[in-house]
Input
Amino acid sequence: MSEIQQTTRDVNPDILLVETPFQRFMADFLEDRVAVVSLGVLIGIIFIALFAPLISPMDPYDLAKVTILNGKLPPGSQSMDGVTYWLGTDGAGRGLLSSIFYGLRISLGVGVASAVVALCIGASIGLVAAYYGGRTDTIIMRIVDIQLSFPAILVALVLLAVLGKGIDKIIIALVIVQWAYYARTVRASALVERNKEYVEAATCLALGDRRILFRHLLPNCMPPLIVVGTVQTAHAISLEATLSFLGVGLPITEPSLGLLIANGFEYMLSEKYWISFFPGVALLITIVSINLVGDQLRDILNPRLQK
Amino acid sequence: MSDVPTLAVENLETHFFTKAGVAKAVDGVSFSVGRGEIMGLVGESGSGKSVTGFSILGLVDPPGRVVGGKVLFNGEDLIGASEQRMQKLRGNKIAMIFQDPMMTLNPVLRIDTQMIETVLAHEKVSKETARQRSRDTLAQVGIPSPEERMRAYPHQFSGGMRQRVAIAIALLNKPDLIVADEPTTALDVTIQGQILYEAQKLCRETGTALIWITHDLAVVAGLADKISVMYAGRLAEQGTIDDVLDHPVHPYTIGLLGSVPGHNTRGQRLYQIPGMTPSLLSLPDGCAFKERCEFSDAACALRQEITEPVPGRAVRCCHPQIEAAR
Amino acid sequence: MLEIKDISKRFVKRLDVAAKIANRLGASAKEEVVHAVDGVSIAINKGEVVGLVGESGCGKSTLGRMVAGILEPTSGEIHYKGNAVAAKTGKDAAEAALQIQMIFQDPFASLNPRMRVEDIIGEAPVLHGIVAASEKVSYVEQVMLRVGLDPEYRRRYPHQFSGGQRQRIGIARALAVKPDFLVCDEAIAALDVSIQAQVINLFMDLRRDLDLTYLFISHDLSVVEHISDRVVIMYLGRIVEVSPTDELFEKTNHPYTTALLNEVPRVEMRGLDYQPISGEIPSPLDPPTGCHFHPRCLHAMDRCAAERPELREISPGRLAACHLNDDK
Output
């Protein structure tokens, strides 16, 4: 045994420097300036969404504080009680800045929640399809094909017409619209991973199907899933905004960005642009920053683009 | 053989400028190959053998760069040559064969299209002549019924046949030099045997010089006239095939030969070189092999120069094992 | 110890819906059937090293995977220590599966890149109750030492190791469940020459110390000659020759074995002056009739194209499937 043990310590020194996969991933991510800025913006948005009640200048839904007298003030103007509304107020006299903060909270919450639920469901279904193959695979993937051949907005509209309004309802609708994307993504990469020898080794070690699926296959299918997840979160947010704008999404008591835009829409022609404009900008910034982060994720997680 | 060798590489240096530092992938490699001669360029992964091949053809991609030395092809230095000149030579006077034939073959074009294009790119002949020549070359590398097979697409060939086609394309313009990078590694033994046989025959007949890059000592043993063994970007030992394989003097070559299982090793422990190939980014000072070498001492910490301890043999080692040669 | 009885594996590419519809309309798409392994029987004794040699498409990897329990045979049975492997269920089946472990070719693909070495090695023994979860670390360290890895590296990920070390991790993973039998599928083919020697020596040490039995699959005859007691040669899904190693390398019987041995490059051989066997390995989708080797065989007779030669004993302990042996 002594000769064998000699060999053990001779690891290349530069190999030793390499960290955990996560550290390597972060180092790669930080290379692109646009992505870093987007990530910063995104973190800021998430921060605002989380702490909206603490940082908003006012609670736009506290009826005691909102007075119609302050309605439709242009950006930067002061109300009679001496409060400055940097982004103006809407028709009911709510400060737009505060409304946007609260709106982000709901938009982001709905987007992330539906993406996470859809990801879990879609990924599990995709994994099962890829691992078992045969008829299971065929049936699942045909359902996915059918699902994806309908325009998302149409399916969501129909579902909401049936389900009615409400945060839970819109999340359900978004999940049903989106799970198929995740299922297809996971299946594609799981088909590749399934044929690798480490999965055969796991079979050989009698680890059991569920363990192989979720502890061995799934972590190795994560990179494309994360990319699709970010893009789909952005998609979910804009879809929710669209639905709310059309008036079938959230009830008026839960004003998301889409609803804010819809509220201001009637004033657009009377030159009170800000009521729709600023929520629109907020929505735009959110979606663009998520997508830019997603682009960078795709670049660094795609093995083909790696040097 | 004429006085000027087909290819003379002198002190070639190719470095890779990576984020983590400069990797000297090729560090002072010299050799020459004459007409009809076959040289085996042998080394393990990371020894710089493939980069040497790419450097000769001027195909080193950034962050790599040839930083020194000469590549004299029929007396002409290719290191400073313009990209235009290189393009004229590549595929014409110098050809390369890769491990994966699909590096050469375009999957969406028929074999004949690709071959005729290769001929016409370098020579002004009629299309019919080019077709004729393509067919003859395919027959030469042992493809049955070439006339018919020419109209096929690459995916319709087996791995061995594809490699033959790649070799035929390399031979089309009767090159003076072929650089073959592990061309048979992915092939089966009987197919490898056929290709080795054809390759040797062709070199002898056409006077083409051949550099056969491989990790497999046994392959070059039967094929080559001379051999260069590389280790960590440097030449370890060089000489005629019989000299080097029968009487190796560099401790690395000795170790490498000792670790190949053969007829007489059954049931015995194989000799094993301890440790592993060092990273090119953090080579030890002096001899790159010293940490794995049983003969190393203080003298090995100095940079080793190439010496000729035995006539006709170039060795980069201060303790050549002339007596220990088995 | 291990008995393989007339085992076959067919891979069928079934027709999809589109092809079925096309067939209704007059097209003639057929199911593609590959006989990867076609009626193979071998018995392997305890402590033996059996080398399994063949070129691509000969079914050696498929056979190895059936032995290791990764693939299920289409027909035939595998008996391990006297019991049919397929007959067992539940916990018995898992326990039986652990007895036979596999070492894979690719040291990169065979380790889960997202797990630490200690989990790669320690997962199965803990799950199957071979060691308690609390003792996992010390057990893993012990196994790592056994295969020549520094236990300090147990928290690392596979990408932080060199090819040879990864192969050792793969070996450690197999050894951790205390198998008696290892199937090595081209286990050293992807390694550098000097590292190959290290791993071959490790296999031999383990055999001596742990009393292991090996099925050593390789295309490299020099390695097989070095390590095995007996050699099995396969061609296109069938065994063509079985022989003790010494006898085989002294004198071959089957013409394919002869050709194969001739063409193994060896360091001792200089200057190629023989004519290699011609022709390509036929596609296993459409193998030749009779003896699969007859289109490439120098001694082929009419009978070879018509009749499949049986594998039969030609001298004690030696089997071959060739019609030429009938005349002797």
Summary: The mean pLDDT of chain C is 87. The longest helix of chain C spans residues 193-210.
